[in-house]
Amino acid sequence: MDHLRAPLAGVPAIGPTLRAYSGLRVRDESTVRTADILGRIGSLEVRLARTAADVRRAQHLRFNVFYKEMSAIPDATVLLARRDIDPFDAVCDHLLVVDHAACKDGACSCRRTGDHFAGTCANRTGKPRVVGTYRLLRQDMAERHVGFYSAGEFDIAALLARHGGLRFLELGRSCVLPPYRNKRTVELLWHGIWTYVLQHRLDVMIGCASLEGTDPDRLASPLSFLHHFARAPEPWRTCALPRRYVEMNRMRKTAIDRKAALHALPPLIKGYLRLGASIGDGAVIDRQFGTTDVLIVLPVSAISTRYIEHFGSTAERHAA
């Protein structure tokens, strides 16, 4: 599964950085408290991280997926901690999918299958194994602390200014362990996000989605497909920052093999498009993570009716 994230814009404050390293969060002044457990399917449960240890387990999972499995290049802090850490961890909510059946009675099924990752297995702690995560950053928390993560790549300020009466949620750092990359886990993650959106009465979801590789010419087909067939309508369109802007319109619309272009898109981006999302103007090269990023814009009002019916208008389908 792909991941959503963007580089930092500027040097962050030291406070959030130290908190994030410890797994601690800054005080959330919202009057809304999201339920601890957001849904269940079989042995899988989706919930929010409530302790510093929970956040550190999510960071361990991200490290193993982004840096060990994929091609991200760690800085000294990440390498020393063996956790994927940045200051946004201190101001975000962390959505976790845990498997209560993964490790029981000292018999670790993930170790037997070769999929054991240090820091994500519950064998030594007696806690359920963290197998998937998403990071959620509400606009109120972003504005009080470190801003939006995607503002390091895209002109998010212009988008917010055009929709000043709406409440935005940024999605990021999505990843799932290899054995769990299936419909059930992804559906549970999205059930958790939908429940969170409803409880906080959020209006728009945004985030950076990644295509593997840093050569836009080799990604000409999927990038051009997104430009011609999935570009956000004008009220929702915003551009990559000028210093980072990479043209997505690399092929004529008539020259695109739509079937091949769709096949080349990462599953996460295809999932967003099915939900009703559209794409910002311009892509951004992220050399640290070895990806080319596009901006996802998903107003709640644009979500396909069939998906709302699937999860339930009150998120009752997989309710805990």
Task: Pick out the low-confidence regions.
Answer: 1-12, 109-120
C-alpha-based Rg, rounded: 19 Å
How big a fraction of the residues is strand? Answer: 15-25%
Overall form: globular
CATH level-1 class: Alpha Beta
CATH-derived architecture: 3-Layer(aba) Sandwich
Give the topology, please.
Layout: H1 14-22, E1 37-41, E2 44-48, H2 52-69, H3 76-81, E3 93-99, E4 103-104, E5 107-108, H4 109-112, E6 129-138, H5 139-144, H6 156-162, E7 168-176, H7 183-200, E8 204-212, H8 220-229, H9 258-264, H10 267-275, E9 278-279, E10 284-286, E11 291-299, H11 305-311
Parallel strand pairs: 7-8
Antiparallel strand pairs: 1-2, 2-3, 3-6, 4-5, 6-7, 8-11, 9-11, 10-11
Helix pairs in contact: 8-9
Describe the structure concisely.
The protein has 320 residues and is an alpha+beta fold. The chain is built from eleven helices and eleven strands. The model is unreliable at 1-12 and 109-120 (pLDDT under 50).
Which keywords apply here?
11 helices; nine-stranded mixed sheet; alpha+beta; Aminopeptidase; disordered N terminus; two-stranded antiparallel sheet; 11 strands; 320 residues; 32% helix; globular
Provide a descriptive summary of the structure in words.
32% of the residues lie in helices and 20% in strands. It has helices at 14-22, 52-69, 76-81, 109-112, 139-144, 156-162, 183-200, 220-229, 258-264, 267-275, 305-311, and strands at residues 37-41, 44-48, 93-99, 103-104, 107-108, 129-138, 168-176, 204-212, 278-279, 284-286, 291-299. Residues 1-12 and 109-120 have low confidence and may be disordered. The radius of gyration is 19 Å and the shape is globular. The longest helix is centred in the first third of the chain and has 18 residues, at 52-69. The chain contains eleven helices and eleven strands. Helix 7 (183-200) links the parallel strand 7 (168-176) and strand 8 (204-212). The chain has a single domain, classed as 3-Layer(aba) Sandwich (Aminopeptidase), CATH 3.40.630.30. By secondary structure, the chain is an alpha+beta fold. Helix 8 packs across helix 9 (258-264). The strands form two sheets. Strands 1, 2, 3, 6, 7, 8, 9, 10 and 11 form a nine-stranded mixed sheet that branches.
